[in-house]
Design a protein that fits this description.
Helices cover 38% and strands 17% of the residues. The longest helix is centred in the N-terminal third of the chain and has 17 residues. It is globular and about 60 Å long. It starts with 6 loop residues before the first helix and ends in a 15-residue tail after the last helix.
């Protein structure tokens, strides 16, 4: 689906203008698509002090999944409107940094493709090689850019869109004591899933206890929510996952900090089930095409995104320590990694 302009980019520029002095736009790179050049735009709100937590809301890594970009823009629009009257939001932003990058792959949005204009799938392009076997094609391939899930040439640098995203996260989030990401995608199954790393191995991440504690407070405060929390490795493994790459970078460069990247996988099969004609549209497989259904999807995720901001702001109140962290780690292994060896009591998992 092509437009003379990118409506999502127009909406982002409108929100930047509406936000005035409360928002800070920055260009973190640019990409060329034919005769067009698109800036890779990020927007920040709130406190900049490095000792405070941060949350990043990401969309448009896959250009075909426009709904991910639209969900992030809808949440940003809600914040911009609330800044006019919401004193609690202003107070929250004195101790929290919010980072938005709704259009990571504007060239893919323009072309209506999952990959970027060079045919590279950004979520298969990071320098991470799976430790175990991956599914054919889906796990990332180097056969041809004409096939989906292309990783890019071996030994080549990361694509500029992925490089810009990694630089933004490395600068704005990783040095902080606590940071969290929600990256919005669509196209997997009939349920909305919230995935956490790893995608390149079935081994658990080192902050498994923190993820389990986050899921626990989410369950306790968001009654009857539709989300399934799980590691991506429960579904399939891939090469080149951007969030695996950034998580590993965080562990190497900032071992004492907590960085939790999450991926929202909206269950697009729900939309197809209600409107089977969408199967005849490549765009329809990944996005709700009926107006009222799209509006419902955009509303559906606002509460979850707002919860993540509040959880980051208040992380010191719920993050487990000591024996409580040990308990969360064991419970997480039982829930998500039943085949993984359990740690002995008294032997604490590494933070």
């Amino acid at each position: 689906m092509r437009h003379d302009t990118l409506p999502e980019l127009d909406e982002l520029n409108r929100l930047i203008e509406m936000g005035g002095s409360h928002v800070t736009p920055q260009s973190v790179g640019s990409v060329q698509v034919g005769a067009r050049r698109y800036e890779l735009m990020a927007v920040t709100l709130g406190a900049s002090a490095p000792e405070l937590p941060a949350v990043a809301f990401i969309g448009g890594v896959h250009g075909l999944e426009r709904i991910g970009t639209q969900v992030v823009l809808t949440y940003l629009a809600s914040l911009v409107q609330r800044l006019k009257w919401d004193s609690l939001l202003h107070h929250e932003l004195t101790r929290l940094r919010l980072v938005f990058m709704p259009l990571v792959n504007p060239g893919g949005l323009w072309l209506g493709t999952r990959a970027n204009p060079r045919g590279v799938d950004l979520m298969r392009n990071a320098p991470v090689v799976a430790r175990e076997s991956v599914p054919f094609l889906v796990g990332g391939q180097r056969l041809s850019a004409a096939l989906p899930w292309y990783r890019g040439p071996a030994g080549a640098p990361m694509e500029p869109e992925g490089t810009a995203l990694c630089q933004l996260i490395s600068t704005e989030l990783l040095p902080r004591p606590f940071s969290l990401v929600v990256d919005c995608h669509s196209g997997f199954g009939t349920e909305d899933r919230i995935w956490f790393p790893f995608a390149h191995t079935r081994e658990p991440i080192q902050h498994l206890a923190e993820v389990h504690a986050l899921r626990r407070i989410f369950d306790q405060t968001q009654a009857h929510h539709p989300y399934v929390f799980e590691p991506q490795s429960l579904q399939y493994l891939t090469h080149g996952d951007l969030w695996d790459h950034l998580y590993l970078q965080a562990r190497h460069r900032h071992p004492n900090q907590v960085f939790v990247p999450l991926t929202l996988e909206m269950g697009s099969w729900m939309w197809v089930k209600k409107n089977p004609r969408q199967l005849f549209s490549r765009h329809g497989i990944f996005n709700p095409l009926i107006t009222h259904r799209q509006a419902r999807v955009l509303r559906r995720h606002l509460g979850m995104l707002d919860f993540m901001a509040r959880a980051a702001s208040s992380h010191e109140r719920w993050m487990p320590t000591g024996d409580e962290r040990d308990l969360h780690h064991r419970q997480a292994l039982a829930r998500w990694y039943p085949e993984h060896p359990r740690p002995r009591r008294g032997k604490r998992p590494a933070p």
